[in-house]
Amino acid sequence: MYYFLPPVLGFCIAFLAVILPGLINMTAAKISLQEGRNEAVNFAFGASLIVFFQTFIAVLFARFISEHEEIVATLQEIGIFIFAGLSVYFFWIAKKPKKLNREAKIKAKSNRFFLGMLLSTLNLLPIPFYVFASMSLSAAGYFSFDKVPVSEFVLGVVLGSFTVFYIYIVAFKKIEKKTEFLMQNINIVIGSVTTFMAIITLLKLLYR
């Protein structure tokens, strides 16, 4: 279990985190439709390479934070306000997303591998996400910051992310209706998640 759980957890967490329509997986789908599957796979490889470095940095940072309890407490306090603010934004302020535009053209003809690296680099959300994910798993006893579990967790995240990208590449036409439904209701989904996280974090602070 010590060696089995980290890659499985990394895969599952990444899969669930990336499965919703986003810039990278939607771009992969559009490249597949307009330029072919091979170009889209190259794009996905480039994006996944950056995911590897982002996740590795996040886990190292999480290990440092976990060794300093005062930092953990401060982050939890800050997290309450962040999650609460995001909940207010997504429930009452954010505009309803527009319908997906499958006619959008990708004009740039540069190497798709490097385009994937570029877009993935611009997306900084995975770093704080995997910081908190790995810290939560460690606190629950399902993960440790030793070299082998860390390597396996990072590998699992990369494979999970690439799997989602590939699903969008090969099956976008089949799942397009479902992605449109998700996009139209994404604010409610995200708002519910952030509200839940704010409540859990508050309870942890109150009963620690």
Automatic annotation (TrEMBL):
Localization: Cell membrane
Topology relative to the membrane: Multi-pass membrane protein
Record-annotated membrane-spanning stretches: 6-28, 40-65, 71-92, 113-133, 153-172, 184-207
Keywords: Cell membrane, Membrane, Transmembrane, Transmembrane helix
Keyword Isomerase: no
Main location: membrane
Protein name: LysE family transporter
Native source organism of the sequence: Flavobacterium sedimenticola
